[in-house]
Amino acid sequence: MKLVWILILPLMIWGCSDPAENDEANSSSKKTTSSETEKTVNPEELVEVIGSTYTEYYDAAKTKIKFQGEQDENKQRHGKWVYFSESGKEMNISHYKNGTLHGFMQVKRPNGALYYHGDFKDGERVGVWKFYDEQGKFSHETDYDKE
């Protein structure tokens, strides 16, 4: 089950990207001339670890945070982690315990509306999870303790 979440979580986060940001990126790339060359950024340059706080940025100037959260002594996610859209919107809040999803999770849609929320215990969904439609209105709930 943990493997399923490891595969699904990145897809959910990717699916939460803001389409308007893609338009902004496309329009800004049109403004550059062919004589300008883009600098290739090493992915390691986008990561900063200060104490136990891990921060990953969208840009090399480190002005736009992508992920931020705490790590344990083994450099595994531990505590609250937040994923932000490139425009700075908070899109996902997850809690971890030594690298495993454990605690509250909330995910928003690209338009900012709430998508779903619920709790994890040792990497498994537990309790009642609530799901919302495109406008953020309650749609349905699932009790994972009864499955």
Descriptive report:
The structure is a single chain. This protein is of the alpha+beta class. The chain has one domain: Alpha-Beta Complex (Outer Surface Protein A, domain 3), CATH 3.90.930. It is built from two helices and nine strands, in the order ααβββββββββ. It has a nine-stranded antiparallel beta sheet with strand order 1-2-3-4-5-6-7-8-9, with helices on one face. A hairpin with a 2-residue loop joins strand 5 and strand 6. The longest helix is centred in the first third of the chain and has 14 residues. The two termini are 14 Å apart. The relative contact order is 0.12.
List the helices and strands and how they pair.
Blueprint: H1 2-15, H2 19-31, E1 47-50, E2 53-57, E3 65-71, E4 77-84, E5 90-97, E6 100-108, E7 114-121, E8 124-132, E9 138-143
Antiparallel strand pairs: 1-2, 2-3, 3-4, 4-5, 5-6, 6-7, 7-8, 8-9
